[in-house]
């Protein structure tokens, strides 16, 4: 089936889940989650697969083992694409991301070396500007307050060097188009616009080579 956005019931579901994040609420409204939230996401991933690779929907349960917040369920649905890209729906609307959210230690070393180097660092600046002009933000994650060890504080790309993750990100507030085919166009538009950043990260950082913990 064709993906034609999410119905208003999907946003209503998450608004109510935010107010009553309980197993009782979830079990009594699970059919609404499956029909209004998960099934449209599955149709979206099926349509995206030829261009962006297969997708995987993250489980709705939160990992509360090390969290002070023991709410059992996530208040959004998120999916990851094998070729890069993340799609999220919540009561706040639609959001998309692409890049490397959290760099492993070996990735961080390669990232900083590439940012510090004149040619590849200048290329990243041009790529980030290109992505921003297309609409998405380019934002750092877990950024240091000062220069990383071994790098001068007055480096011309010190802001980029401070980041421990780098992604393109875009959000859209709930609007009637979210329940139409226009949602697909927004998502694919973001993924294509953010691809240059993903390409730079793939070429200069790549996957972590450290063993899984």
Describe the structure.
The radius of gyration is 19 Å and the shape is globular. With 213 residues, the chain is an alpha+beta fold. The chain has a 6-stranded antiparallel β-sheet with strand order 1-2-3-4-6-5. It is 46% helix and 15% strand. The protein has helices at residues 8-19, 23-28, 30-52, 105-116, 118-134, 158-161, 182-204; strands spanning 55-57, 76-81, 86-90, 93-100, 137-140, 166-172.
Topology summary:
Elements: H1 8-19, H2 23-28, H3 30-52, E1 55-57, E2 76-81, E3 86-90, E4 93-100, H4 105-116, H5 118-134, E5 137-140, H6 158-161, E6 166-172, H7 182-204
Antiparallel strand pairs: 1-2, 2-3, 3-4, 4-6, 5-6
Helix pairs in contact: 1-3, 5-7
* Helix-strand makeup class: alpha+beta
Round the Cα radius of gyration to an integer and report it: 19 Å
User: How is the main sheet built?
Assistant: 6 strands, antiparallel
Shape descriptor:
globular
- The total count of strands amounts to 6
User: What proportion of the residues is helical, as a percent range?
Assistant: 40-55%
Mean pLDDT: 96
Secondary-structure element order, N to C: HHHEEEEHHEHEH
The end-to-end distance, rounded to whole angstroms, is: 39 Å
Which stretches of 5+ consecutive residues score pLDDT under 50?
A: none
Give a short synopsis of this structure.
The chain has 213 residues and is an alpha+beta fold. It is built from seven helices and six strands, in the order αααββββααβαβα. The N and C termini lie far apart (39 Å).
Provide tags for this entry.
six-stranded antiparallel β-sheet, 7 helices, 46% helix, alpha+beta, 15% strand, 213 residues, 6 strands, globular
